[in-house]
């Protein structure tokens, strides 16, 4: 009440940031201590994390926030290092795929050792729930990161676990050295590398379906890859509760593509921002977040993949589709996440 | 309309490109600037409140405290609050400086302000009957309104409105929706229920009153009366200043008003045109621009409400040149000159007759 802000910390933030540059309430400081290329485009970052950080369950992710050219931008990354590294030395590792035309990941590459970033608490419910039951892990590409953390963190092995690690060319397999060491040391763990350049996806599916007997499945990779696997497993009678998955990335066109050059359906929409309504044409292939940004409406955002709920805003009317699941919304007033919503009908949205 | 359709399109294009140039360079410099203003605001608020209590040493300290608190409130309302609530800094993704989160040190609830000011006033600027900011439903500012007896003493009404300006702003939406008195207007589009309006009005108002007139006097102990009077004075200074600045934006002598029918189905270029005719600037040094929240560049603010305001003075040069090119009147002058025409207008239309502000477009 005294400062008209939600908390006095936020009221005093400009002062606090003078003495403590980079301080953001609700976030934790992490110092970059090492940078190492795992593959040609996967960069492994090692951070020394503030002692206040509450820790994580292997498989969870966090939001990494950078301050760049006057703005805070965040993306989610899974922690790929073992729990013991955090417990013994307060360090965590992230494995990030660097997309050079992207907005965020090239900045990670530019970070120097000693650089300070902000991280959120660990979040997400993708973790090794039943280490006592036989488990099958399937990782594709950068989807290896949370699964590597689960496997490398396991101390007492109780049941056999197999990892099917699908990569495009074995030279692109990140964290392979650590996983091979684990396979050599731990007889219950089997590592199977599957190269998508030489082995078709059906082969992997056949291998998986050869022995389904009461196994737990943990999937992590691109959306289409996981959807196919999930369908195959369900067809072979694996109950849904035996399949756990974590989604990486959204299948969206790059926002730099010229809107007018594509032949996609255009829908009109009204974005009401700070009380002022702006009429725009939306391409139905883009997320509402991308469209709003292309029209310079500067909506609030965070992870851009439906995780952090920073871009939630009020839809007044119209229907949207959830990009992840394809589910259609209602037509009335409700809250939606801009980053995972595509327009289906004409829309009115309060940013 | 004095311009042809092609000219309106060309005008739209030229004004858009002025905006784009600035948008492309938004970044660190803007973030540093607004954080610095925020820091000065916080420091003057804190030191002002402390100095007021130290008034027992010498009343001059108390006076300095009052002036610092008034400065803090003016900066918070104008350069920070008004501009942040317009979404000028949303691109920063900052936990404080965001139009959805910011709440300011004034009786008016931020959400209510966004509906009446950002939406109603900025969309329908100076359209008689639609923009309730043209006279605030209290003052007769042109012969487009019928003269009533109460207009005879509107000089006094104006003085009262200025002194209590934050409450006028706060009550603005409730008056429009006829929450407490009057017959509901059928054509008014309601976004928020009356009970929510009341809750926001009383909730925010009470918080402000408790803060300035109960909490801070209480913790000042024996100096409670000094602090209470100091807070009252600081609020009064802020009210008079904001009211004066805002009246200079749309009620100067040469300003235009519009008829609702003329503006139906207007293009973006025509909207720009109307914003330029319906607003007026005043000139002055940088510190004056900052204290007005750059509303001294009201024309640029109305053309580009979501561009960080520190760019307005530079944009004004370009906009002025564009206006000259198309023969559009560009209303500017010194602060004293502009304000004297505002005051003249209020006094003139307290009497019957006079000219209309609606001029055929």
UniProtKB/TrEMBL annotation, chain B:
The keyword Ligase does not apply. GO terms for biological process: lipid metabolic process. CDD domains: Delta6-FADS-like. One of its GO terms (molecular function) is oxidoreductase activity, acting on paired donors, with oxidation of a pair of donors resulting in the reduction of molecular oxygen to two molecules of water. Keywords: Coiled coil, Membrane, Transmembrane, Transmembrane helix. Pfam families: FA_desaturase (PF00487). The keyword Coiled coil applies. Residues 61-332 form the Fatty acid desaturase domain. This is Acyl-CoA desaturase. It comes from Rheinheimera lutimaris.
